[in-house]
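Encoded backbone
================
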Amino acid sequence: MYSHMTPHAAGSLEARKTPVQTRSTATVEAIFEATIQVLLREGADRLTTTRVAARAGVSVGTLYQYYPNKHSLLLAVIERHLNHVMEAVERACMEQRHQPLSTMVDAVVQAFVDAKLERRDASVALYAVVSESGGEAVVARLAKKARTAMSSMLKTAPGVHFSDIDFTVFMFFAAMAGAARVVLEAGASPKMVENLRTHLVLLGEAYLNNAAK
């Protein structure tokens, strides 16, 4: 697991090169997209840097300029996807400060679901590789940022106080993420997505109202 790696080994998984030029950025975009497509078409067990490079239309050597191995590539793809989702939640939290609790809940739910659905294929593909790639550390770090933003937002809700706001938000996020995963992995039909949004808002409002003092 990622958490048991030595400092040297963990360092070897980090990206070697940061894309700063337009061409480099386009190459990384192609590599990321190819990783998702290989995961979807071949499965996690058959994901290799060779297959990703071939699908991206680059040489394996070019891929290695950015990511020294499959694990570093997966971590980068996971981080990019989750960072997009959590930044959407953070923006919603910043925009809804001092609003009624019901407005806050609706905004957070819609932002989270919208971001997950924007690349539903990536969401589904990456669920299968988070644990085996050491991605739990990335998930924990980015989710903590979003939860911190939500805790700060809730502290501004008029007439509401939470005795343990951090744990309350932790549970809310766990419920939201778990429900979204079930729906996405079940195909996420338009009706299912509509119900997901409605029921997450109902769940969130009921839970937070009951958790509040």
Q: What stands out?
A: The chain has two domains: 17-66, 77-211.
